[in-house]
Amino acid sequence: MTTTAVQTLKLEYVKTIGIVNNAPVGRGFANPIDLAIHDDGRLFVMNRGAPVFTRIGVTNMNEDYLYEFSSHGDGEGQLRLAAGIALSNDGSVVYITDEYHHRISVFDADSGDFVRAWGTHGSADGEFDGPTGIRVDADDNLYITDQNNHRVQKITAEGRHLLTFGGAGSGEGELNMPWGICIAPDGSIFVADWRNDRIQQFSAEGEFIAKFGESGDDDGQFIRPSDVAVDADGNIYVTDWGNERVQILAADGSHVRTLRGEATLSKWALDFLAANPDEVETRKISNLTPELPPHLDTPHLISSQTEPYFWGPSSVNFDSEGRLFVTESSRHRIQVYQTG
Amino acid sequence: MTTATKSDVGLIKHLLRRASFGATPTELDHYEELGYEAAIEELLYPGDPQNMPDDIIKRYHTDMHELRYGNSASAYWLYRMVTTKAPMEEKVALFWHGVFATGYAKTNQARSLLNQIDMFRRLGLGKLDDLLIDLAKDPSMIIWLDNQENHDGAINENWGRELLELFSMGIGNYTEDDIKEASRAFTGWTLGNAEYMAVRASKDSIWPYSRIAWHFDFRPGDHDDGEKRFLGETGNFNGDDIVRIICKQPATARFIARHLYDFFVADEEPVPQWPYSPPRDPEAIDILAQAYFDGDHEIRHMLRVLFNSDFFKEAKYSRVKCPAELVAGTMRLSGSVTRPYMEIIPTSDLTGFMGQSLLNPPSVEGWHEGTEWINSGALVERVNFAAKEISDITAPGVRLILDRLAERNGGEYTPTEIVDACLDIMGTPEMDREMRAALIAHVGMGGDISLTGGEKGGRCERRIGELLGLIASTTEYQLV
Fold first, then answer.
1. Less packed terminus of chain A by CB within 10 Å, N or C?
2. Following DSSP, what letter does each residue of A158-170 receive, concatenated?
3. Rounded to two decimals, what is the model's pTM?
4. Are strands A71-72 and A78-79 parallel, antiparallel or unpaired?
5. CA-based nearest distance B110→chain A, Å
């Protein structure tokens, strides 16, 4: 059981970063879908920008909006359905998956200049049908979930195919529209097996190791998990997208804790409210965690009415200081928690 | 189980044009096997809609997970119309959306508008009393008609007036005092965090963290629980009582009957004309009004009587397709939507260019329908869309049509035979003689059609695709 894990896991809410942005440029987030964290503290936020405000915004824990790059479109260096973002180990380039163009685009992390892109639509090795999750291993190779081919591909930084594993199905080691992926501290690969409502663990060579969870909304169950991250102690953090929550499992898969979200006003949110006193006054007399009528009782509908709760948690990441970053596509923000 | 006769087949197609969005060959097989009356019952008791799964849509269209924008919400509804296996649910929702017209332009709340549509799915075939009570509690309607400003001692009569004038009885059947008394009864019927939500709606504010969806809230301290006199009855009425009294009225039965006739049978004049002009078919309204009381105010029973009536069976092609019917019906037939795709939003926007922006009607009166759908700009949009959509011979639904044609008639057709077969598939068998002759002459320029042994996408298939597109461009295809 989980008693030991419950007693030892420390986790505290720190802050919220973000505000909605409804323009093709500028401070704020537009449906952020994934995050890459630089060793120097920069946060590279992948704005899916549904439907057309796609770009990468770069900020930090102090909520300085530093710069942004790329845009919506079909040309080189442009993105349409950006899904995942990862930094190279030296922090010099970012890799972005685009499930519309079925390719991976590479940008200079400092200048934002387009470097190269690779990938074509298909099901052969090195081809993609909806590439989504992307993470970099210690050797700078990329593990990429290939959503509609129901598999994971390992690719070199230059785009050369190394390994494929998974395949359509619900058996051990098989996948159904995988989304997020992570490389655990021990080098094993965790995949958010999205439409199988579970997390699967593979060796770096793609051999099945373990599976965690099943369909449902109880502790340890998932509805369409979108991403996974693993801490230094082996605890598994899952954005349980369909349940609008984050679940934490111990290394053995036992349930440790569930987070529903506790967002507060970010610096940018406070800036906005400072200029809109009518909203401040009426907000003061509001209850943003209300009781709802029974026909609005799904996690999705509850989150649509409850501002502090996670809504569309799409990505979960750790920085080098053990901070947990949960990216919410429909609230345009990142909730930060301190672990350890 | 009975098998439909040939005359039944024509009626079943008529039924499916009205109670659904037309029929694919596969749907037709199913309903023909059921027979006409059993088909009505199945349509009136919608089962699992099996529409494109929400999770698949929301993962792909992040904007449809959030539903911040109006056009994301209308496109999301279009997916449902196009892929549902319970089409009556969507038809009834579309019907009530036109009657209880609530719009994005004032509410700036796409998700809550879709919640209202979902309420129409849940309650739209049920008892009118239940529907009107939930409508009064619907937060989009509350903001749309300012009921959050309707206070004890300081009424705002916008909701009370429209409830009587446009949603239940029609002008001439109540007094100004009835409006005031009804409004008093609905004081305190508001939405959660009304003050904040009203400010955000009025400013179209999405900040800081996007929209916050709405829910109903009753504030007893702001409710006038004093005695009221309404439509001849006296009591300490709350809103529920007002709805109950309204639903007992013969005028309500006739008003709802005329709305149902207008949407499901034949185009009526716009609602503002109703007090001054008799119904197109007064006897039909009498029959439907009686069905309202016989069925204890249940809309499903009214529709059962309607679809089984002679006046319905004789009303083929007497309505102009509304844009949503045209677009969704053509897409269902083409089968082009098999998974989420980016173009669904511009496709959904087309209904707006044709005069019907879903979830954003021009006013609380809804859309003026019938021939008012057709002006030269809208007609060009309608023809261009339908012809392009149905002439794509790679679309799964069109492939199914081609495969069926290849199986029948030995796969060999004269120009006359292929035109008649395609007219039947497109739901337009009663084509104008001159137009039919022109289509036959056009196809005849290429000679006979042979679908045996040819490869997919070959010349004969392309000619059929072109013919389907031409049929979609005719006047008859605009009718339902």
1. N
2. TS-EEEEEE-BSS
3. 0.96
4. parallel
5. 12
